[in-house]
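Milestone M4 deliverable, item 7.
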Amino acid sequence: MSYIIGVDCGTSGTKTVLFDHTGAVIASETIEYPMYQPKNGYAEQDPIHWKKAMLDTIKSVMAKSGVSKDDVKGIGISGQMHGLVLLDKDNNVLRPSIIWCDQRTGAEVEEMNRTVGREKLVEITANPALTGWTAAKILWVRNNEPEIFSRIAHILLPKDYLRLILTGEYATEVSDASGMQLLDVPGRKWSDELLSAFGIDKSWLGQVYESCEVTGTLTKAMADELGLNKSTIVVGGAGDNAAAAVGTGVVEDGKAFTTIGTSGVVFAHTSSISIDKAGRVHTCCAAVPGAWHVMGVTQGAGLSLKWFRDNFCSSEKETARLMGVDEYYLMDKAAEKVPVGANKLLYLPYLMGERTPHLDPDARGVFFGLSAIHTRSDMLRAVMEGVTYSLRDCVEVFREMKVSVSDMMACGGGGSSPLWRSMLADLYNCNVKTAASKEGPALGVAILASVGAGLYSSVQEACGAIVRTDKVQAPDSEKVPEYEKYYQLYREIYPALKEKFAALSAL
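Output delivered:
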């Protein structure tokens, strides 16, 4: 039997999973590491922690499994996107990595817009200049740490630093490189125009591959350390969301996934590039060769439910503790008893401002229509519905862009809620499914490695053989029009309050 290793370098830790060629989990290991915040708005990690976590987890899964090194055919790596790893000519790390959630680069975003122009940036990179993305971080180092900038020989993303450790190759792939704002996203190559404008030497950047292409094999030293063969291939891999798309089978037109974690993500595959000039959603190269994806983000998805639980659901917490069940299960049961529309109560989930579709950091949460008849259960139902309305907003932007969504997977903590899945199905008016595997990005890059190793001829073929559906929630024909009435009213509330949000912020 053939086996594949999937490595997922996340923000809280690195998870490595050994799969067989059917996608079955043979062994898994996770090692956590810290994030540092030296100043308000800063977020950094030490790439050496990622390196050690990757090596130790690979050794662990091989030891646990007892699988022969001759049967391990390839390695795929997924990683947190946008992180800046700077190396000198001897491959020494020059400074801690400035990671995706760092917000120090406001001045550099303004500089990018002055230097290139917002419209040109969107045209080339498919996205407006963003504080969390990599190009602005490179400019910040140039502007604030010139001594370090002068010693740069290589610029890598987190997972691509791990590739260097494994193979000795300076390389990246299109999905992760799309989040650097240095890639010509329609052309799937580095943008000479942007590199020149920003003063970035092209030789600092790795070669760009497709996600399932082989980027190298293990060095002899690394093969010996890990107990693997030197001939073990390492493919391009993918950024975390693009890897999750492959791991859930979202690799064809019409397919999409919704993740309800702290924030909410709606992610759709498209074989034709589509760019939202308003910048409400992100467009990036997909992990499928010759394809792209669009991604909308709502800031306060699962966060809204957690906020409600922590402040208003102490009785559910206590009852859940006594019953030995999850408090969210009891909250689901309470919300199920309330009709669609939460007895004419609407909730705007803008606890942390909003990205898609409003791009408004001043937006704030609202209960609209609250009256003396409403109970805690009504408010709970309204919170869940409001989050679902905000996710539907993402889908509406996709539809404006001519990106079809007819087949939806549900992921993340919220995806495990039958009630939330039914709301999604009714508001999207399509089937909402869950994947049998919960390995997400690690499975996705293992699938990419299985293609690179020749076990499957294409990403689509591999997903067809490996990705399995667990549950399917169909839309309720009676509830669909009922939700639609409330959703259309929901859409009118933010425009009516937009100026008042700004006024509140200025007080």
